[in-house]
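Table S2 (text version). Query chain:
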Amino acid sequence: MGGLSIWHWLIVGILVLLLFGKGRFSDMMGDVAKGIKSFKKGMSEDDEATKVPPQIGSTTVIDAEKQTDKTQG
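Corresponding structure-token output:
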């Protein structure tokens, strides 16, 4: 009894279309899609920015292996 049936949602949808019109509603949905795209793009740019670039002069694993080979041989 407390839940909304399909008829309630249908009436709400029709009222929204009447108030905003078909063109305005599709424009709003397009704006929402653009917002989601820009949010995803911003999140991926943040991930790329947080990657630490390798430091110049730092010892890497390969350099460490070469040094151990020189000391053993």
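Notes on Table S2: Residues 47 and 71 are 40 Å apart (CA to CA). The mean pLDDT is 75.
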